[in-house]
Amino acid sequence: MKFFVDTADVDAIRELNDLGMADGVTTNPSLILKSGRDILEVTREICGIVSGPVSAEVIATEAPAMIEEGRKLARIAPNIAVKVPLTWDGLKACKALSGEGHMVNVTLCFSAAQAILAAKAGATFVSPFIGRLDDINLDGMDLIADIRTIFDNYGFGTQILAASIRTVNHVTDAAKIGADVVTAPPGVLKQMAAHPLTDKGLATFLADWEKTGQKIL
Ligand code: E4P
């Protein structure tokens, strides 16, 4: 399973990349806003940190302009994945950009039907949004499972990129189902290391070590 980092925070990306935990990065307009930086500048910097795919999202809503924006974003670095929304125009842009050899991430996917269209349009990645489905009392994980089944039934090569990850359980559940990639905020990836029994066990070991009076260094 690949981990993408869902952020435009270069310090967080650098830390996770140094640990081998950043197989790629996803950004979106909200994350660019949060970074307070210019999209081209920050995306270029991210592409210099990670060698895997870095998703950068188009803003246009009509296919011709999406394609132009996608080409401009793709010129930033060879590891750019152009992110387009799962609309009819987004699918047209996906088909054109993937036909030109660019990686394309079709985002804002909320149904299996949409995911099939993304695969048919040649998407490199399709991004089902788990958390936002959970927010409206639907089961985001059911969607990941449905897409996995369908893609396996037909041998679609599009990678399932589980997105809108809010919890550690989202990561492990998506892994159990067989999502190809999970993109999660740095905080969720770090939280995966935490367990109360680890903390408790370590506290006991340290207390007992103190009693031995020994030193390693
Ligand atoms: C994915 O590429 C998106 O950037 C992201 O996962 C959206 O997550 P959110 O629903 O927490 O904003």
TrEMBL record:
Pfam families named among the record's database cross-references: TAL_FSA (PF00923)
Cited PROSITE patterns: TRANSALDOLASE_1, TRANSALDOLASE_2
Gene Ontology biological process terms in this record: carbohydrate metabolic process; ketone catabolic process; pentose-phosphate shunt
Compartments where found: Cytoplasm
Pathway(s) served: Carbohydrate degradation; pentose phosphate pathway; D-glyceraldehyde 3-phosphate and beta-D-fructose 6-phosphate from D-ribose 5-phosphate and D-xylulose 5-phosphate (non-oxidative stage): step 2/3
GO molecular function: aldehyde-lyase activity; transaldolase activity
InterPro entries, alphabetized: Aldolase_TIM (IPR013785), TAL/FSA (IPR001585), Transaldolase_3B (IPR022999), Transaldolase_3B/F6P_aldolase (IPR004731), Transaldolase_AS (IPR018225), TSA/FSA_arc/bac (IPR033919)
Active site residues of this protein: 83
Catalytic activity: D-sedoheptulose 7-phosphate + D-glyceraldehyde 3-phosphate = D-erythrose 4-phosphate + beta-D-fructose 6-phosphate
Assigned keywords, A-Z: Cytoplasm, Pentose shunt, Schiff base, Transferase
Stated family: Belongs to the transaldolase family. Type 3B subfamily.
Record function comment: Transaldolase is important for the balance of metabolites in the pentose-phosphate pathway.
HAMAP family: Transaldolase_3b (MF_00494)
Name recorded for this polypeptide: Probable transaldolase
Organism: Rhodovulum steppense
Gene: tal
